[in-house]
């Protein structure tokens, strides 16, 4: 919020008082009030139904996020199991190689 400043000094002639009056009128015509929520115009039943619908949507979004999260974890598990199997084979191969050197 930035206040409106008059370009006239207080000692100006009557044009300064007009500017001050217009500043006051502008401030009064544009008050900083909270706007009414559209839901307040609805009946109790309509608000309850709206809340239920929003809750259903939020719950479905949460289920979708969880599903994607679990799918990503399952993919990660498969990748790590394959990597572990490859490392175990490499380890076994190196063990065999060290026994042949001894």
Structure commentary:
The chain is mainly alpha-helical and about 100 residues long. Helix content is about 75%, strand content about 0%. It has two helices and no strands. The relative contact order is 0.04.
Name some characteristics of this structure.
single chain; 102 residues; 0% strand; mainly alpha
Helical residue percent band: over 70%
Total count of strands: 0
Rg value: 36 Å
Low-confidence stretches: none
Largest sheet: none
Q: Provide the β-strand percentage band.
A: under 5%
Terminal Cα separation, in Å? 83 Å
Judging from the principal axes of the Cα atoms, what is the shape? rod-shaped
How would you classify the helix and strand content by structural class?
mainly alpha
Average pLDDT score:
81
SSE string, helices as H and strands as E: HH
* Helix run count: 2
């Amino acid at each position: 919020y930035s206040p409106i400043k008059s370009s006239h000094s207080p000692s100006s002639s009557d044009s300064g008082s007009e500017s001050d009056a217009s500043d006051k009128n502008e401030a009064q015509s544009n008050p900083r009030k909270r706007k009414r929520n559209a839901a307040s115009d609805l009946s109790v039943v309509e608000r309850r139904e709206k809340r239920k619908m929003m809750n259903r949507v939020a719950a479905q979004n949460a289920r979708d996020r969880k599903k994607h999260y679990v799918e990503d974890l399952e993919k990660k598990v498969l990748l790590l199991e394959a990597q572990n199997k490859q490392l175990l084979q490499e380890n076994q191969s190196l063990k065999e190689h060290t026994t042949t050197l001894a």
